[in-house]
Amino acid sequence: MTSEKRASAFPESFLWGAASAAYQVEGAHDADGKGPSIWDIFSHQPGTTHEGTNGDIAADHYHRFKEDVALMAEAGLKSYRFSISWPRLLPEGRGEANPAGIQFYSELIDELLKHGIKPMITLYHWDLPQALQDIGGWENRETIEAFEHYARLCYEAFGDRVELWSTFNETLIFIGMGYFTGAHPPGLTDPKRGIQACHHVFIAHAKAVRLFRHYQAQGRVPTSGQIGFVNVMQPHDPITDSPEDVAACKMADDLLTHWLYDPVLKGEYPPHILNMAQLTWGVPEFAPEDEDLLKDNICDFIGVNYYKREWVAANPDTDNTKINTTGQKGSGQAFGFKGLFKFVRNPESTYTDWDWEIYPQGLCIGMMRLKERYGDIPFYITENGLGAKDPITDGEVVDDPRIDYLSGHIAAAEDAIKQGIDVRGYYPWSFIDLLSWLNGYQKQYGFVYVDRENGLARKRKKSFFWYQGVIESNGATR
């Protein structure tokens, strides 16, 4: 942590922002005609989340968005990344739209613009309408058409005021934990079904990109608008230089990075991994137009969500997909798939209470590796943050570890810019404390504390004022 003033490499147009997601922050889970999402159902099932926490109320942003946007303006935010709740707009996932849902997001966008804050919309941040899950969810190609219908509704309702869009957030997580480890809805452990569901997500993305560009050509969304895709960026390094660990690390890269970035940035899957999947499970199955859809609809930018690096080792014996959701440091076990790879702790590294390595340089290294594979693509750092149990001292939230964490990562982002990476914005996760999916409300990320014992009162943390200074100086003071 430092207040040292230095020359800044961040361009004047750089978007200093913050991020959130609908289910995690809005609450109002059944208000004003909203339909249930898969998370509304899943989080109420016994044993699925920490201490049975759910997003029924969350931070109640739905009812308090003007107060929250005023805080964003006070912090000096240039942009705010948020997701739209699909079932709030379309309670059945398709069909008739809910006017109250459209009105909420329209008013939120207007409030942001009134304060000079540029909206960045994520169309899908995991809260699939339960009505679509009831017909098979992402395994059913009807969900692709429903997503295109939903995207059209959003472009038509908000496209006149919003330039920055992304289709999906973190396929690695909602497919990986939904279909491979069973920790997220729909709670399956079936690779064949997961691979096909993942393919349908990429086709839905391509159709939404195609529609966006069609609307651009018609002048129905800004010609300056851009549409991208948000992925986990999780650099992998082998724990030793043994051939076995190096090979395991390459496999982790292929399965957890290239499989998820190639379709949206190259318009195809890594051929050897596609061949392996189809020989092993017979998936993904392609419809006749799928290959061309991927090739013809490369996205305009990539959003990267960076929290940690993973050290990789060969894995002849471990089959464990459980993760630390308690915040008890060291309670996590080596996550891995037998015969492929496993993630291991490096005793020389520093870790959070949730066993995530703190490695700021990985933000720059990860983007450099992506540039090497995909060329000169624009980057937005769409998530980066420290999940912690914040200390409260004499009524003040003194979150110095968060300031240290973010300061180091901003330095890494600046280093990336100096090395020629086209980084256009930085969106820490999150602006306000919110529901952390499986971890409940104990894992805090925000610049703004939500007092759950005092009517959800908002309180600015120490990091709020620090980030205010970072933005005011365009990254020169941190």
Characterise the protein shown here.
The chain has about 475 residues and is of the alpha/beta class. The chain has one domain (about 15-470): Glycosidases (TIM Barrel), CATH 3.20.20.80. It has 15 helices and 16 strands. The chain has helices at about 20-25, 40, 60-75, 85-90, 100-115, 130-135, 140-160, 170-180, 190-215, 245-265, 270-280, 290-295, 360-375, 400-420, 460-470; strands spanning about 15-20, 80-85, 120-125, 165-170, 225-230, 235-240, 300-305, 310-315, 335, 340-345, 380-385, 390-395, 395, 425, 450, 455-460. The strands form 4 sheets. An 8-stranded parallel β-barrel has the order 1-2-3-4-5-7-11-14, surrounded by 5 helices. It has a 4-stranded mixed sheet with strand order 6-8-10-9. The protein has a two-stranded antiparallel ribbon with strand order 12-13. A hairpin with a 5-residue loop joins strand 15 (about 450) and strand 16. Helix 3 (about 60-75) packs parallel to helix 5 (about 100-115), helix 8 (about 170-180) packs antiparallel against helix 9 (about 190-215) and helix 13 packs parallel to helix 14. The longest helix has 27 residues, at about 190-215. The radius of gyration is 21 Å and the shape is globular. It starts with 14 loop residues before the first strand and ends in a 6-residue tail after the last helix. The relative contact order is 0.14. It catalyses: Hydrolysis of terminal, non-reducing beta-D-glucosyl residues with release of beta-D-glucose. InterPro entries: GH (IPR017853), GH_1_N_CS (IPR033132), Glyco_hydro_1 (IPR001360), Glyco_hydro_1_AS (IPR018120), Glyco_hydro_1_beta-glucosidase (IPR017736). Keywords: Carbohydrate metabolism, Cellulose degradation, Glycosidase, Hydrolase, Polysaccharide degradation. Its EC number is 3.2.1.21. Belongs to the glycosyl hydrolase 1 family.
